[in-house]
Amino acid sequence: MIVAFGEALLRLCPPGHQRVEQATTFEIEIGGAELNTAVGLVRLGREVSWVSRVPDSPLGQMVRQRVRSLGVDDSHIINGSGRQGLYYLEQGAAPRASSIIYDRADSAMARLKSTELDWPKIIPPHGWLHVTGITAAICPDSVRAAIAAAKAADARISFDLNYRSKLWSVEEAGRVLGEMIPFCDLLFASENDAKLLFGIQGSLSEIAERFQVKSIATMRRESQSLWRDRIHATGWHDGKTIQTEPIEVEVVDRIGTGDAFAAGVIHGAIDDEFERSLQTGTAMAALAHTIPGDLLLVTKDEVDAVMKGAGLRIRR
Amino acid sequence: MIVAFGEALLRLCPPGHQRVEQATTFEIEIGGAELNTAVGLVRLGREVSWVSRVPDSPLGQMVRQRVRSLGVDDSHIINGSGRQGLYYLEQGAAPRASSIIYDRADSAMARLKSTELDWPKIIPPHGWLHVTGITAAICPDSVRAAIAAAKAADARISFDLNYRSKLWSVEEAGRVLGEMIPFCDLLFASENDAKLLFGIQGSLSEIAERFQVKSIATMRRESQSLWRDRIHATGWHDGKTIQTEPIEVEVVDRIGTGDAFAAGVIHGAIDDEFERSLQTGTAMAALAHTIPGDLLLVTKDEVDAVMKGAGLRIRR
Amino acid sequence: MIVAFGEALLRLCPPGHQRVEQATTFEIEIGGAELNTAVGLVRLGREVSWVSRVPDSPLGQMVRQRVRSLGVDDSHIINGSGRQGLYYLEQGAAPRASSIIYDRADSAMARLKSTELDWPKIIPPHGWLHVTGITAAICPDSVRAAIAAAKAADARISFDLNYRSKLWSVEEAGRVLGEMIPFCDLLFASENDAKLLFGIQGSLSEIAERFQVKSIATMRRESQSLWRDRIHATGWHDGKTIQTEPIEVEVVDRIGTGDAFAAGVIHGAIDDEFERSLQTGTAMAALAHTIPGDLLLVTKDEVDAVMKGAGLRIRR
Amino acid sequence: MIVAFGEALLRLCPPGHQRVEQATTFEIEIGGAELNTAVGLVRLGREVSWVSRVPDSPLGQMVRQRVRSLGVDDSHIINGSGRQGLYYLEQGAAPRASSIIYDRADSAMARLKSTELDWPKIIPPHGWLHVTGITAAICPDSVRAAIAAAKAADARISFDLNYRSKLWSVEEAGRVLGEMIPFCDLLFASENDAKLLFGIQGSLSEIAERFQVKSIATMRRESQSLWRDRIHATGWHDGKTIQTEPIEVEVVDRIGTGDAFAAGVIHGAIDDEFERSLQTGTAMAALAHTIPGDLLLVTKDEVDAVMKGAGLRIRR
Amino acid sequence: MIVAFGEALLRLCPPGHQRVEQATTFEIEIGGAELNTAVGLVRLGREVSWVSRVPDSPLGQMVRQRVRSLGVDDSHIINGSGRQGLYYLEQGAAPRASSIIYDRADSAMARLKSTELDWPKIIPPHGWLHVTGITAAICPDSVRAAIAAAKAADARISFDLNYRSKLWSVEEAGRVLGEMIPFCDLLFASENDAKLLFGIQGSLSEIAERFQVKSIATMRRESQSLWRDRIHATGWHDGKTIQTEPIEVEVVDRIGTGDAFAAGVIHGAIDDEFERSLQTGTAMAALAHTIPGDLLLVTKDEVDAVMKGAGLRIRR
Amino acid sequence: MIVAFGEALLRLCPPGHQRVEQATTFEIEIGGAELNTAVGLVRLGREVSWVSRVPDSPLGQMVRQRVRSLGVDDSHIINGSGRQGLYYLEQGAAPRASSIIYDRADSAMARLKSTELDWPKIIPPHGWLHVTGITAAICPDSVRAAIAAAKAADARISFDLNYRSKLWSVEEAGRVLGEMIPFCDLLFASENDAKLLFGIQGSLSEIAERFQVKSIATMRRESQSLWRDRIHATGWHDGKTIQTEPIEVEVVDRIGTGDAFAAGVIHGAIDDEFERSLQTGTAMAALAHTIPGDLLLVTKDEVDAVMKGAGLRIRR
After folding, report:
1. What ipTM was predicted for this assembly?
2. Binding-face residues of B in 58-77 toward F, CB within 8 A
3. Could you give the CA distance from residue F1 to residue F7 in angstroms, rounded to a whole number?
4. Residue E100: other Cβ atoms inside 10 A
5. Is C182 an 8 Å CB contact of chain D?
6. Phi, psi at residue C70, to the nearest 5°?
7. Which residues of B touch C193 (CB under 8 A)?
8. Report field, pTM of the whole predicted structure over 0.80
9. Residue B272 is a catalytic residue
10. Which residues of D are marked as active site?
11. Per-residue pLDDT reduced to its tens digit, A266-295
């Protein structure tokens, strides 16, 4: 059983490439970094429990239903006061970048007290805990408690830096995350975040050494445009740097693709197949670009097909 | 020039009679008690300035654009920090009542400081100030400042009780509103609010006497259902109680109908035609039931037609 | 073979009960008085040719496709210069009447020259010609030529007054229609039009006598509201006045219901069953109220079911 | 734990009151008699497992996700060959009845073999089994096996006749259902079905006597129209006939209202409160009329509010 | 007169790039290999009759209306029992291929008996018959009867292999099609199908020799992606291989593009202009990529413009 | 204060890449060459008044609301008789060009009399007048009056040739525009128009010399496709030719991009920074490609970001 701990936001997006100011309808999606990864792992056949706190309202109900529908265990989601966090998304087109307006302050999750969740009961022995810097920003004490419980249960820990400047300062994030990373078995770190938070410019090995992390993975994109991309993965494991073949993608929805990558890598890492885990992650991320919404609605067969380079003929 | 002071919320509503939990899109409207009244007054030919504080974001921009498009003066809207308040609306059907989930805490308007607006400059001599209990709950000091400035400018004041239990307690509201009402020239008070806030059960005259208000108006509905209604107005003025003929309505959208009533009554009250003002208010409220969204998109001709009982044949 | 002669307009309607000024999309329908009747007759099993002139553009193409799809013969539709006439429709709700903004000047049909159509070839011997006052306003000479050809072919003629004040004055309409009606075998005349055009206030017999018309039919509604109605028919034939039982209707779309009535009556009149023709007309009109758009998409079975009072249980 | 056994169909419905022949989009819902009841029971706080067979395809996946999202246990749903059954729905308006076109032959459920489900393991001791005549028509042997297992487990059984003429003849249905009913503890039987299948015209007591059923419940409607209705329940229990107060409803969606009624009655019957069970059933059915789709998305609070006659004011 | 014989399916497609499992609406199109070709030929100015069997239901009515609206003759479409075949389409994006789920078993067409159609009356002397391997799989005897009648009427025959693995095995298809092809004047064969069915790997000439076919045409694509493509045609005629210039396409909808190619080639082949026929076919296929739905809604002018390389400036 | 003088059309566009003939809805936008430029200038911080004549109808109201909402001054828009001009837009995909069907004859603007507008009052001293060849075609006398008033007020004048063949002949346009251009300070001229109207093939300097214009600007595109483009600007000023760096664009909506270019160039020209004005114009045009509708809904920050080459990372 994998435990993913984080918040789900309601995503409100004007149709097509409309701007928020001209919108008369919003399309609704549910997403959240750890939840996206949880869904991806379920699609790969894993059992995952998503731990969160949602408001006691139809919006919290909406989140819980979506989680349950996708086969993610909801038994450790707690209901409580506070609002449903949300974000507004404008889909861009070159040279106009996509943009996100967050409205997540004082959410049910932000009000989570570190005593509300009984971590030793939540994390099973020899399980896996996945968490990101977003949750660390919102509920640092709960993340510390979760990490401690994971260590006590001999569970492995994966951590995605995911620095969000709206949530905390670089200094604060660097300090808090710097304390958490040494407990990780698998770290997801973009070059940007590594540089911003820790001043690390160079190779992944530098991060590995600094924080004594066994495995590091990062997804890279060569954005020629917003509608097409080419992605590949770089990883560091057991002292070696590994690269995957790039995959060409046509972009339907960019949100959540890093989380899909994490799902693929964790899936492989559980079985201690690191090289294959990077390939799975790249394929997962590639597919995530082709699906509307944050959540990765693919089948294992489709992931395998991408990994084999199965081509683009209509499947009948 | 009429000055209306209040907040606009973003209204998110699932299409048709869908529940929020099953929605995949939200229809977007903009509304707010005083803004709704402002728009109604512009439709009747008045000049109105709507005073508010909106977030410095595409959402605040959306609000401002809507206000401007409808011919309401926006020169006293200020931009600032804080979020865009919003509410989720579920349209009901008998026996399921419609329901609203507010998400308005910590909005740009809620962060308004009483020193941010220069009321003596905003309210013109012999003008008119309109405000409701909602704004009084959110920014009581600013409302007090506005009332003081109105009095100083020899402007008349209309006030709509509009008690919202999510914003404040009955006790708090009764105390604050009880201090403000005596300054009003025209009070809008539902029976429910009068009873709840001031323990006044009986006729409007009792309120008038207690608070020394010259004119009181209230809209009443005989809700047999959510899709049809029959509305009429009762008013108290110069010691007399006045009733209007009821109007049958087919209900497209119930939100903002009380504010439309207020617009009609204020319009008449400005010209000191109280009986006609109630009739105009009833016609405005009736038409407001037939238009999607909070805002009253009617023409003066249509209001006149309803007041004359012009019938339902297609206008070609 | 029945020949219906008239114009089709593009109908642009904001969704739901939106006003045109707030619309961001229009729903598209095709309609026209004689075309609506033609479609109704095809549904009852008759062969009908609709004669018209449409613009040489994708919009004219759209009209022709719709006509063809519904099994109406299009072999006498001619293409030509001029624009596609259109109208904007706002669906009302009590007490706000529905309203229509016409934009039909200088249409392809309005440019029809009376020599463009070879009426003796179009109207078959012993056939039936149907036309309305709308076409008489737009192309009076062509209507005269059609009537002459019908008479020469021993075809019967039905005429629906359908006075439209935007197209011509009462005086002009009264004069032109007054000359045409005596050639009719079956006249559709609302009380309103009879009074307006000919000053006839009383019973249908007065019209019959004045213009020497054999049969007259009129649909009446007891509009308590825009969403519910009760309709019945009154007819005059062979010196007798006939009434049908009223039918309760829930109103989805009111446009074209009079044309559906005409279809039902003509259908019966062809077989010289006048009383039944009124019943069929009432049933057709009732069903037309329940279908979005101008065109009557029903089956003969459904018409029979309404005439038998078959009830409202779900048909599975 | 309640066990509901049946099939879910995909429902394809043109928007608004469009006819299928004019549709360019279909709105998608999932529904099925026993599933609808299962969802209603979950909403009332019961644990329910829905037993079915769904196709091994994205459509079967869609069904399973919907079931899971609503908190219904899916652990006894099996995947298999065969198609996803579906039906097309046209929403009517008086005098045009709504109509359904079924397309369910050779579905995954229709291919269920009676040996595929291990009923003794599915039905817990002292549990409850709910099934309808629809499932009895499609998989009679499996229904017999389920009933036998329920009896063996000392579970109670509820059965809804739900005769569907497209699935089997009156004779066949009468014979098969006649054998099953005597095992029921609670029977749902419309007057229509009782008469059609068993020639029973009179009171519920006659059915009770004939089949030795302890409790019978039926929902009755006084359909004045398709958009408004008044419903109440009649029950027979312990030799007494019981009636509930009628509830006025505004109809958003009629499909699944009988199944919602069954949920309410079963909920009460489990606690042996028969009179209250009828009231709960009526309230559930009333609410089901107000919600788009087959499935009953209400809260327990809303059911209580209807039972108390809480009124139609907006809930804020 | 060209006779096209085949089935039309209802196509249900989630909007945008949604997956079926997440869809809440389906967009509806009508399509079928031979029907698509028929529509393309009508657009090029040919008279075409489409022969098929459709269900006696609103769905069959929908198909017939669509056929008629596009100017295809429907006088040989027969109504009958059986369901409306359908397919679900998921539009992909690289690296996720588009996918189709067929649901066409036991359709009205599949129930066609070879005696139901009077082929000698359907196929006019010196006419043209077009059919594909799909129809050969569903109604082999009827195809044989049609071919025989065509031969007897001295009509030419075109055949598109169109192998569908869900309909029959490679062996069965190879055997049946192998007997039919020798009667063809014009064969459409993809490299894939040629290899799969007949083990022919090489050039088109090998097929021509094996089956004694005069003309063979095939469309080729260089799929770099799902949203852009470059297509050209290769043909074999009179012992010569011919190639067309490639055309760059932006892909709106890929379905039916091969059928559009066939329409263009048949159009030229009727006039015995084989080289031009390939160019027309390529232009038709290119345009078909740009139009939503299976059916080719273009004008002759647009086809000519593409053949002349007219450029991409807005046509005003 | 900048004064822009022109007409706004209603744009009716089928969703996605649908053809008009298959549409069942139209998406509504408002646009017009000078209005588009006016909106762009407001976005850059300028004060702009748009001068026009709109119909006295909900459609004219819709135009006025849109203008007002975007912060453009509407105090010189007059209401009057005549229809609302409109155009139908089909969005193409290579090799199918986009196409526009105009329906603008006899619009309210076309009925503008040159005496209706008091130009000396409209154009402020030392202001700026912007007008295009479209307005010159529709209301030549009013354009002459506006130019005269501008000259008298010492205002600068910008003119965009914008030749539309549907409005007037090349000869007529060449003659009328040839007389107007010499009064311009800044001319926008595409190579195509320059050649067509004045037979000028070569460089911009030739136009400058012929008409004694100080500054000329033109936007150029290297259309490889309809969905991607690369644009840059060429200008001629003070005897020098200037080029901007090309910008890669992903095309959401091409309409109004030339007008956005004009806005950027005028913005710079007002401050006498010609080189920068071309860069601003190119950035504005690039952004205009990414926004649905004719109107340029961007922020000054976004324009600056494009000019700095800020990249495509999501802005959070």
Report:
1. 0.94
2. 65-66, 68-71
3. 19
4. 17
5. no
6. -90, 10
7. none
8. yes
9. no
10. 259
11. 999 999 999 999 999 999 999 999 999 988
